[in-house]
Amino acid sequence: HLACFACNVCHRQLSTGEEFALHESNVLCKQHYLDLLEVPGKATTGSSSSSDKMADLVSNSGGDSSDGNSELDLSMGSPHKSKRSRTTFSEDQLKILQANFNLDSNPDGQDLERIAQQTGLSKRVIQVWFQNARSRQKKHMTGFSSSNAGKL
User: How many other CB atoms are found less than 10 A from the CB of residue 23?
Assistant: First the structure.
């Protein structure tokens, strides 16, 4: 259950696809795992055990800690791929995309790369925009012809 995955230090619920670590049966967000590796005031050369570091980390954050003495058990987990944030296009980017779409609605890889450079967007974002634009065009064409069907 996603709701069960919360950092034992900051108690923040972890999101789908977010990296985490398991340490002494504690779930840690990536930031607190990295903090565990370099707890302020503690050397990372082995002079302090991972249990001591975990105790310091949790006490510095106001959370609870287990007293286990096991070695650092890292399981950087990512059960699902992170979801990319939604892209918003500027007016200039849309003008470039629309102008290129009017010239060629199905550009090849080189054209996608060139458009990506012009707009500052990734090639994949450009590719998806063109796929969506072709779908919109097809939808409007079929919608237009079916709405006028039977009319003279």
Answer: 24
